Amino acid sequence: MIESSLINSFLMDQSNEIYDYGKVKLLPLNNLNELLNNLKDVNLLPFNQGKIFFKSNLWDFSQVKMQGLTQYGKRINFEKCPEHFKDILKVYVLIRILEDKVKIQTILGNTQRLIKFLKYADNQGCITLNDITSEMMIEFINSINSSVRNKNIYRTTIRQFYEIFSIYFDNINTPEIKNALANKNQRLIKGLIEENKTENIPDEYYRKFIHVCKDIVINESEEDWVRGVASVYLILSQTGLRINECLALTIDCLKTTNHYDGHELSYILYSTSKRVRGLNGVDTVYTYANDISILAINTLIKLDLYCSRRESLGVKYLFMGGQNQREDSYFPLDSAKYSKLVESFFVHINEKFKTVNLPEGYYPGIKNKRIWNVRDVKTIALPKTAQFRVHVVTELLEKGVHIKYVQKFMSHLTKEMTSHYVRPKVDYSSKQQEIENSKKTLESILTNKEKPIGKGSAEWVEIVEKFIKNNKFNVAKNLDEIIEGLLGKYPIKQKVGGYLIAPINLRGKTKKDSYTDMYLEKYGFETTGLTFYFMIPKTYKHVKNQIQIVQYNLDNGFTKEAKVELDKLKNTITDLFEPELKELENQLDANGLNILLQSHPELLEIIDKISEIKKEINEWKTFKI
Questions:
Q1: Residue partners of 146: CB distance under 8 A and separation at least 6
Q2: 492-494 vs 379-381, strand pairing mode
Q3: Coil, strand or helix: which one is 338?
Q4: What's phi and psi for 85, nearest 5 deg?
């Protein structure tokens, strides 16, 4: 059992601006009934700011401000939780807060999921946690009408709830419960790794939108709030800041320093909690400011509406909202309140940049949002603020900026988190880009610039040679004709882990890839058996994901599943990764690093640690269960 002194030590480590550990220092944690009685007697949560009563159905954290960022503006409502589970859930939430391991936003979301789970248990006639069976848990997870990712979040949330209860009080985490909450669906795990990523903003949309925002910012006849929102978008587009980090910027955020050659450099100082673990962790960091960012910041500083509002409220935030946000409790504005302004902004710019009542997909990569409060406006097309962050990270890495540098200036905890933001470049404007890519791929094969790799490469080479022979073509003289002829019969599609080259049927559409299931079964991801050396980052990413799956199964005692996934890992290493790596080394020897990176800057991360990767791959290739 965990003694009460441990919880008190959590509180002792926190700033007294947030916690009052005297309120809970006498609470024992080795007896649930005694703990509940003491909590009800004290009836106050250990926060100095505001009063949150334990016995209340509503815990309002909007009065509790953490350093540097926004107020939470959120509430935990226990009203819908069944009475016989309510106190236990409150204790769990309090322990999670005092542990200081996760952000309170996460705790808030998980609480609502647990309420839904406990209501389900109540409907099944359960009075205590011991009454809930593993079969009920499985039925509940299966009953959730949601995405695979969301089901896994529910599963993880319930598992953590049972683990915490078992650590502090009675051990109810039986083998049957653990098994019910374990994730043994391998395709599910793989899907979760990549599922639900925010899309990148297409270049064409990005350029047009930034142009419109710049015009608005410099146009003094525009309303101040419109220029303010446009300025925020300019900052997001140039820095990749998270929206709450941007909204919390202050009027003194823009700093300058002298470069070693005498030139003046500008940078933005901002606060973030994302690269610091825990509830109240905040770090002050900086990022580079270019001319567009500087224009936006200086505009926000000088807007008349914002200057007068800062003076009257006694605050110094850069962005001061819309016409009706006049109280100091609004600032710094949170993302929810900002999103309401954004809706009005995108309706406002419709004449300059079409946004209203457009068909879905009008701007590929940009979703339509349903709105209700503007007459004759049903939907607006607008990018998510996170899409600008994705765009910035992708652009930096594609231009050859080292991932460690990007990690630092995007305030990520890990390189893996930085890599998570990278998206493949896609030209959404037309099918022409796909055709051009196909032509380049064919040309590189025919002129021996790129060597096809994988089990499907021999078949493809045979097709090409037969086509040239039957038509009596000469590669040197008839290159364009060969490419056009092959594309007419064998269109090329780039898949996740390779290229699909399939004949056209009578309707002019590509046949269903009959190899997909075979390769998915063999390698564990969507490949085609035809790849090139420059696809090695994707293959290596799959290898790392597959390693995680093997380790997950071993850690949870799923030996049979681990063996199946290990076979897929070894197949990927032998058939795809090692041939790609060998050809990459050949290209390095033949052309040198600089020329290679000009065409494929994403290869730097592999080349940079090639010896380390080889050692890692060899260990798994020889690993046995």
A1: none
A2: unpaired
A3: helix
A4: -110, -10
Per-residue pLDDT at 515 = 43
Longest CA–CA separation in the chain, Å: 94
- Structure tokens that stand for 565 in this block: 């996934």
Residues facing 269 on adjacent strands: 286
Q: Return d(Cα 264, Cα 259) in angstroms, integer.
A: 6
Whole-number Å distance between alpha carbons of 97 and 103: 8
Share in percent of the chain as helix, strand, coil (round to 5): 55, 10, 35
Three-state DSSP at 480 gives helix
Helix (H) or strand (E) holding 189: helix 186-194
Distances (CA, A) of 153 to 109, 144, 254, 358: 10, 11, 39, 33
Record the tokens describing residue 294, joined without a space: 């500087």
Per-residue pLDDT band at 345 (split at 50, 70, 90): very high
CB-based contact 55:68 (threshold 8 Å): no
- Six-digit token string for 194: 């990549």
Q: Is the peptide bond before 364 cis (omega within 30 degrees of 0)?
A: no
What are the φ/ψ torsions at residue 455 (nearest 5 degrees)? -65, -25
For 414-464, the pLDDT digits (tens) are 444 445 555 555 444 444 555 555 666 666 666 666 677 766 666 667 777
370, containing H or E segment: strand 368-370
pLDDT at 336: 80
Q: Residue 318: name the closest of 244, 251, 229 by CA.
A: 251
H/E stretch holding 232 = helix 224-239
pLDDT tens string 299-310: 999 999 999 999
Q: Is residue 452 classed as helix, strand or coil in its secondary structure?
A: coil
Alpha-carbon distance 253 to 317, whole Å? 9
For 365, left (φ over 0), alpha (ψ -120 to 50), or beta? Answer: left
Residue 220's contacts (CB-CB under 8 Å, 6 or more residues apart) are none
Instruction: Dump the DSSP string for 114-147.
Output: HHHHHHHHHHTT--SGGG--HHHHHHHHHH--S-
Rounded distance between C-alpha atoms, residue 107 and residue 92, angstroms: 10
Nearest to 232 by CA among 285, 303, 284: 303
Residue 55 φ/ψ, nearest 5 degrees: -80, -10
Sign (positive or negative) of CA dihedral 115, 116, 117, 121 = positive
Phi and psi of 290, rounded to 5°? -95, -175
